[in-house]
């Protein structure tokens, strides 16, 4: 009997030890079992270049023309998915905002929440400006709601203003860790939130000037970008895992598929714009800057045109998503409207100077550049000048430039390939007809009379 009991005890101990051993070998002790708040925020930040690094965005603004597969750029009536944004960065940020277990060792929890709110608002602003009405208040609830309603763009804008204000109001002293944009500097995030509000307010200049002026001044008074040091920039790294999208396309895949458009070169070349040599390379046949007509389909040779500049497809190139120059152009426009006190010309000159510094590394050429008759500020032509120079400055952030073009109509030289005008929105994902039919149909009925056109008019696009 003693032998039997001893055998049972030994067997039990052996099984317990084996189970414990199995558990131990399946745990990586030097990695967390659950992502922390700042790790989720950093993961969401990794998607930021996707807002800019997209050939489709460059086609919408007509910065680049296709040299190889021209049909891709000809504005076909096709859907564009917003699912990756909801399933990726927005889901990560929502996880932070709903977490009950944020780690204060990564910085004040209030500041982690604030940054997540700011980034979430920034992503939603970009999405609604592309599609119009989108899922918002009922989105990001996981299996609690697979069929969220589409909120109106107007209601989204109004709520985003409040979300951004709330985020800055909840901030406390103390910086954050694992922040790959501002290095955890919470005061920079505060300026970014206010600058986002200011640019959002300007977007409403045609649909609701009174609200636009009110929100613009509110954001300005709270503190916006004051130099290029405040710019919202994503820095790629000289390594395969974190490299520039355009490096992968041009260098790794050997694709010389993108030339500067004739429209862009025609604005920059006659005034010896010093940014042109950054934006593109001289052509190989003459050493000249020659743009390709957007949508040109006949016998295109890459030797004849100015292809995308070396600096733009460097492996570690930076992506500027919001800049001091943008804020200065906005201030120039607001001064022109009489929304704020100040000299529109001064703000305009300031915008161009900071743009040259950002793109070329120096503002030394600003004085001579601004002295040229076609560049020097002209009060009688102020809006066109401001909008056109802003479009030049926003090179390679095509979707943002496209939004500004839709609002102002400038520059006025965008072409219509095969007679098709530049789209004024993106069509919803095809899947929504099946995945969220009732809410999808309500959205297209409300906005476009039952259609889902790429030339539909958004709420603010009056």
Automatic annotation (TrEMBL):
Organism: Galbibacter marinus
InterPro entries: SusD-like_2, TPR-like_helical_dom_sf
TM regions (residue ranges): none
Domain of life of the organism encoding this protein: Bacteria
Pfam families documented for this protein: SusD-like_2
Protein name according to UniProt: SusD/RagB family nutrient-binding outer membrane lipoprotein
Record lineage: Bacteria, Pseudomonadati, Bacteroidota, Flavobacteriia, Flavobacteriales
